[in-house]
Amino acid sequence: MDTSWEARAEAASFYGFTDLPSVHQRGTVVLTHGQGPYVVDTNGRRYLDANSGLWNMVAGFDHPGLAAAAKAQYDRFPGYHAFFGRMSDQTVTLSERLIEVSPFERGRVFYTNSGSEANDTLIKMLWFLAGAEDQPQRRKILTRANAYHGVTLGAASMTGKPYNSVFGLPLPGFLHLTCPHYWREGHADESEAAFTARMARELEDTIAREGADTIAAFVAEPVMGAGGAIPPSAGYFQAIQPILKKHSIPLISDEVICGLGRTGEVWGCESYGFMPDAIISSKVLTAGYFPMGAVILGPDLADRLQAASETAEEFPHGFTASGHPVGCAIALKAIDVVLNEGLLDNVRTLTPLFEEGMARLAEHPNIGEWRGKGLMGALEAVADKDTKTPFPGHLSVSERIANTCTDHGLICRPLGQSIVLCPPFILTSGQMDEMFTKLQGALNEVF
Ligand code: PLP
To answer: Which GO molecular function, any one, fits this protein according to its record (predicted)?
Structure first.
């Protein structure tokens, strides 16, 4: 019997989001610990994780302050929910802190265990509100093709990826508009401004066709993350926000990836100059040291939901670990580490180096474009640079590049035909060089 970690992992695990032929051929990387932005496997091999775990481990894998915050809270009060009229003191403090660092002058916070659950919670809030405000038809959710909002039934329905059809999703009433990716979706001879105007017209037309009073919200990531680190076309949010406002449709910013520093501002909506009605947060919220998500409601939704809740006597929703005190203690520390202990500053310092490195790699004849914002970016592989013709197959080329990187001790993510980089915020410029050198080597090897 093969008793290797790789064989044991394959025998005992049911894999999700994993290319099985590749796993069968290459084996599973089983990790035991980390140091700064590096992770180490059972064979003692070290990898620079340009993926930050899954966009979340921004403070690295051995941050003493985060571990200490967890230990102190485990010692004091290891767990409690946040309902039935009870919650931990840490939960109260975190809610106040989140509102303080949010773009809202006031608001309310609801906790979940993940970003998906936060998005499903948001949908239930909007549907609850629709019922309470005597608009039971206001249930449709608008998102975009290529968006990623999670895996639970509502969040998966919001997600604009074709793979969800294997589950018979999306659920009815979840509508996907065009992905605002100018390089890929722009017509020949269409300027970026004209493209943005077309996106805005599509939104207007959709609202007119469906009826504004049937639409509960428009939900968008400031930069699409799992869609392939796709920033919106220039002026996109400035064009769509007034349309949504005119029709009283809430704009929700899914900041699970962008929130708390990734784009170079505290929130992605700040990077793109729009004011959402609510923010969905997770990932950097605990720097990956605890599974946690949050719906941060701005003043209007907070007031209306509170009123609806008072009338109905309760909003019947919550998770056993909602507002878990250890998660809240870690989140309080993570927010401090990012905002006050130099991580956001480092994102800003590293961004020009990151952009330079990406631009250099994009000179490769098989890289069609580089795109990104702050410390997140993607390189899109193409068979023909002039015509932007993709390579055949869904993942093949990007998977080969990522696998070659892994062989050289660099973890990065193949997403469609692109390679996505979202390194931890603690990266040094030397580690940034290492990341680009290894990726350049992999490109030279694959092409
Ligand atoms: N929303 C966005 C923008 C995400 O990127 C993700 C996950 O990557 C989610 C929601 C879902 O979060 P989770 O995986 O914690 O359920």
So the answer is: adenosylmethionine-8-amino-7-oxononanoate transaminase activity
User: Is the C-beta atom of 434 inside 6 A of ligand 1?
Assistant: no
pLDDT tens for residues 366-415? 999 999 999 999 999 999 999 999 988 766 899 999 999 999 999 999 99
pTM (global) more than 0.90: yes
Domain spanning 67-340, CATH class: alpha beta
**Residue range(s) in the chain whose domain bears CATH number 3.40.640.10:** 67-340
CA-closest residue to ligand 1 atom 12: 115
Ligand 1 center to residue 187 CA distance, Å?
A: 30
pLDDT single digits (tens) 44-95: 999 999 999 999 999 999 999 999 999 999 999 999 999 999 999 999 999 9
In short, whether 256's Cβ falls inside 6 Å of ligand 1 is: yes
Looking at domain 5-62+342-446, its CATH class is alpha beta
Q: Which of 89, 19, 114, 22 is nearest to 329 (CA)?
A: 89
* Domain boundaries for CATH 3.90.1150.10 within the chain: 5-62+342-446
What angle, 0 to 180 degrees and rounded to 10, lies between the N-to-C axes of helices 89-101 and 325-340?
A: 30
Q: Determine the residue of 57, 152, 256 to mutate for testing ligand 1's pocket, defined as the one with the most ligand atoms within 8 A of the Cβ atom.
A: 256
User: Best of 149, 151, 373, 415 to mutate for ligand 1, by most ligand atoms within 8 A of CB?
Assistant: 149
**414-423 exposure pattern, b = at least 16 Cβ within 10 A, e = fewer:** bbbbbbbbbb
**3-state DSSP helix/strand/coil percent for the chain, to nearest 5?**
45, 15, 40
